[in-house]
Amino acid sequence: MTAKLNARGDVAVLVPAAGAGLRLGPGGPKALRLLAGEPLLVHAVRRVAASPSVRLIVVAAPTAEIEAVRALLAPVAPVTVVAGGAERQESVSRALAVVPPEVGIVLVHDAARALTPPAVIESVAAAVRAGHPAVIPVLPVVDTIKEVTPDETVLGTVDRSVLRSVQTPQGFRHSVLAEAHAAAADPLTDDAGLVEKAGLPVTCVPGSDLSMKITRPLDLILAEALLHLPQ
Hints:
By secondary structure, this protein is of the alpha/beta class. The chain has helices spanning about 40-50, 65-75, 90-95, 120-130, 175-185, 190-195, 215-225; strands spanning about 10-15, 35, 40, 55-60, 80-85, 105-110, 135-140, 145-150, 155-160, 165, 170-175, 205. Helix 5 crosses helix 6 (about 190-195).
């Protein structure tokens, strides 16, 4: 059954899905790799569509796959599909360009974080709605982190209490994200990084272990094990 989005919602979610995903190995665009028989993009969009604040979903797909992605997502949710760019930042900018100005909150989400719970999406949106210009979901860093020289000699141990592992969706006031992209001089893979460079504060909210980024073949195995856990 195709999900119904909230026509009165105040959130647009952009999903840049044009990347090749070379670390995942050969097999086409990463967002279209299969997890338990369905593309990662389908899993991601399904969870975004289950978020009650979402009014619009825009996917930036590989140019050669636009019609295939439209057909793929039609049974999942009403989605706008645009041609992605050579770089992630360009894909986000193209997706952002079709978001109506009256939609005040824009989230940018990785299809590779296919199992992100709707509750995380709502938490990020709520924090932007509360007045923060930019919001990211994070987890504490649990591993010991060492600073090393180019020849792999340890210089010291980094205080992990002040470190966070960043996830998506990253959320922004619409105007903040648009201005950050318009001012970007160099391509970045992190939209919050553009906002940081603009001098605006970025606020953290708790992420989820289910929001792991599927990057390597091992991640697909782990994600399939997580797929059946409660969302």
